[in-house]
Design brief:
Number of strands of chain A: 0
Radius of gyration of chain A: 22 Å
Structural class of chain B: mainly alpha
Radius of gyration of chain B: 20 Å
Helix content of chain B: over 70%
Largest sheet of chain A: none
CATH class of the largest domain in chain A: Mainly Alpha
Largest sheet of chain B: 2 strands, antiparallel
Strand content of chain A: under 5%
Strand content of chain B: under 5%
Number of helices of chain B: 12
Number of helices of chain A: 14
Helix content of chain A: over 70%
Largest interface: A-B, 46 and 44 residues
Oligomer: heterodimer
Shape of chain B: globular
Chain lengths: 359, 315
């Protein structure tokens, strides 16, 4: 089995096991899993609106997945995508609500604000890692909760809704990523300009990783830090840069989510999409196109769970549980794969023995 | 000022205790060499298991149901932690990914079950633990009103666990072995210690203590299960690091963080406290932990083998 195939097998295996676990959970509450999955798929594709909702729901996941995947390439574990996304959304929303610009200039400004905010949130763990050898996992966790509390107090103070103190004001149409004619064409689906941003980023990251010196250096640091250092690559600079780019991608996820999918922000929520991004990156084997595919799959699970719940009564949390179980299995899939190989090898040996006996 | 301190103290202690016991759980796990960022999820799962028992029994046996809830929450947390133990010890999986999965599974799965069992994602507890004044001790000036007035029984249980943990980790052969597994697992193995078994025990203990922490939140100040502990598991993780992986350090860190958070929470009610903006108080624990990591980066007390899989076949 070559490497690419083996990665694909591992992803499919984890997904399969996750779906089996989901089926067991449906059985556990006395529901029919075939029916459950049937309505999950039907809920995703039964109409134009719903089909585009899958894309709309998966859009932000493409970017958080890309963020985690990009850091992975440099050997860094970014579990701070949630916080970076929150800060990116906060920056973009603030610009969108308070800066008086025409749409054509406003959206790019929001884009830059989101990338800068997220990038800054990624830069802190990057610098701490490069200069003080602070583990990025711990640092990004801390940054998540700092972002959570900043948003908690920032939104009611500066950008609150007219009647609610727990959420931000609705964005004006000119600051929204929704395109009226596209929304109308798809019967009011969630799809918006964000998907263009997401696909552009997939292509850009693919290009950076495969075709540029920067990408080469980042990957070299990821494969073997000491060897990279020895070869004259500035390891510290690359670590910081990698976290800044990862943070900026997650910041953009905040932009497309809070200014495209939803039209405002709520306090007291660390976006679960940040953590789903880990699953997306693992399932997509950290390759940009793989991330896109995995994000759309999770978009399906999320966008259709309400419909499935309405028809079958299975709680919508089944989707989140399946995603979480898939993460668990991707963490352990190396072992499972080894186990399967062993079983296959043993079967082959037995078959050989049996043949040998006949002779 | 004294009146304010006297008012805040019982709240601060009530808020600190679940973080303290969860952080102690993290201590066992990390000291044995297994990083546990799944504390949040373990708390949620324990809280759910406890809440369900209380929900079932509270009309039949109100007093007993609370204590049974605490016990079952502990067992539930321990059982759930086996998932993390299996992945990170037996399968040599990435411990951070496994811990993240634990957090996500707990949040989603408990709500899934809760909705099926009770119809809504929430489980209410009618009556929690009562607050009691300790006789005689509560009459001591200064200390009496601060420490011994209107306390929960669970607080004393947790302080007992703290003392016991210190004793186990530093004064028993078991503790020495456990710490050895987190520092030099291969050396420990060559000295005849079963590293796999020690780590399993440690991770299960971490789940039990985190689960207990979750139920304590439920039966003291929250009174309701809703599928989340709002980041307290991560606060416990921060306290573990800020306390430099030591029981007394953890006590200091959790109390410090708990006090800060309580001040932020009630600063709207007490104008004297709003001199410091609540956002500063809330982010303080996390910023301090980052600063502590920088300061101690050269002399960190972190267990040396924490996060590294142990694979005898490889050496």
């Amino acid at each position: 089995m070559n490497k690419k195939n083996s990665v694909l097998v591992r992803s499919l295996l984890a997904t399969g096991l996750g779906l089996v676990a989901g089926a067991i959970m449906m059985l556990f509450i006395g529901a029919n899993p075939f029916e459950g999955y049937f309505y999950l798929v039907k809920g995703a594709f039964m109409s134009v609106e719903r089909t585009f909702n899958v894309v709309g729901t998966g859009t932000a996941l493409v970017l958080t997945g890309l963020s985690v995947a990009f850091a992975f390439k440099t050997g860094l574990f970014n579990i701070g995508a949630a916080g970076q996304m929150l800060i990116g959304g906060l920056c973009a929303s603030t610009v969108g609500l308070l800066v008086p610009l025409p749409r054509i200039a406003l959206l790019p400004t929001m884009f830059i604000a989101a990338a800068l905010g997220g990038g800054l949130w990624g830069a802190v763990p990057g610098v701490l890692k490069a200069k003080f050898n602070v583990h990025e996992v711990v640092a990004t966790i801390m940054m998540n909760w700092i972002a959570y509390w900043i948003a908690f107090y920032y939104i009611p103070t500066f950008i609150k809704a007219e009647f609610m103190t727990t959420e931000s004001a609705l964005l004006p149409a000119k600051a929204s990523l929704k395109i009226p004619w596209l929304t109308e064409l798809t019967n009011g689906s969630y799809i918006n300009l964000g998907i263009i941003i997401a696909i552009a980023m997939v292509i850009l990251i693919k290009f950076i990783l495969d075709k540029t010196t920067l990408g080469y250096e980042l990957k070299a640091v990821g494969y073997n830090r000491d060897a990279a250092q020895y070869a004259g690559i500035k390891v510290n600079k690359n670590i910081i840069l990698s976290m800044v780019i990862a943070g900026a991608l997650a910041g953009l996820a905040g932009f497309v989510y809070y200014c495209g999918y939803s039209q405002n922000m709520q306090i007291g929520k660390l976006p679960s999409l940040g953590f789903d991004g880990i699953a997306v990156a693992l399932l997509g084997a950290s390759s940009p196109w793989g991330v896109l595919a995995a994000a759309m799959f999770f978009g399906l699970l999320h966008s259709a769970k309400g419909f499935m719940n309405a028809i079958t009564g299975i709680p919508p949390q089944i989707s989140d549980t399946i995603i979480a179980i898939i993460i668990y299995f991707t963490a352990t899939s190396l072992f499972i794969e080894r186990l399967i190989k062993k079983v296959i090898a043993r079967r082959k040996e037995k078959a050989k023995d049996a043949k040998g006996g006949e002779d | 000022m004294w009146d304010i301190v006297k008012l805040i103290f019982p709240y601060a202690i009530a808020y600190t205790v679940p973080i303290l016991v969860t952080s102690l759980g993290g201590l066992y796990s990390e000291r044995s060499g297994v990083v546990n960022i799944g504390l949040e999820g373990l708390m949620v799962f324990g809280m759910f298991a406890g809440a369900y028992i209380v929900f079932l029994l509270q009309t039949v046996a109100p007093g007993l149901s609370i204590w049974l809830g605490l016990l079952v929450g502990m067992l539930g947390g321990g059982l759930f932690a086996l998932l993390h133990a299996f992945a990170s010890i037996t399968l040599n999986a990435n411990q951070v990914i496994s811990g993240t999965a634990i957090n996500m599974i707990a949040g989603a799965l408990t709500l899934y079950i809760a909705r099926t069992l009770t119809g809504s994602g929430n489980i209410q507890v009618i009556r929690g633990l009562p607050r009691v004044d300790i006789p005689i001790l509560s009459k001591i000036p200064i200390l009496g009103p601060l420490l011994f007035s209107s306390t929960y029984a669970s607080t004393w249980v947790v302080l007992g666990i703290l003392l016991l943990s210190w004793f186990i980790l530093y004064k028993t052969a078991f503790g020495l072995r456990l710490r050895a597994c987190g520092e030099h697992p291969y050396a420990a193995a060559s000295a005849g210690i079963n590293v796999y078994r020690m780590r399993y025990i440690a991770v299960v203990i971490s789940g039990m203590l985190a689960g207990l922490g979750g139920v304590i939140i439920l039966v003291t100040y929250s009174g309701e299960f809703n599928g989340s502990v709002a980041g307290l598991g991560f606060l416990a993780l921060a306290a573990l690091i800020f306390g430099q992986w030591k029981p007394l350090g953890i006590l200091g860190a959790t109390f410090f963080f708990g006090f800060m958070t309580t001040m932020a929470n009630i600063s709207q009610v007490i104008p004297e406290l709003s001199i410091i903006p609540p956002v500063v108080l809330k982010v303080f624990p996390y910023v301090m932990t980052l600063i502590a990591l920088v300061i101690f980066s050269k002399s960190s007390q972190a267990p040396k083998a924490a996060g590294q899989p142990f694979d005898l076949g490889k050496k």
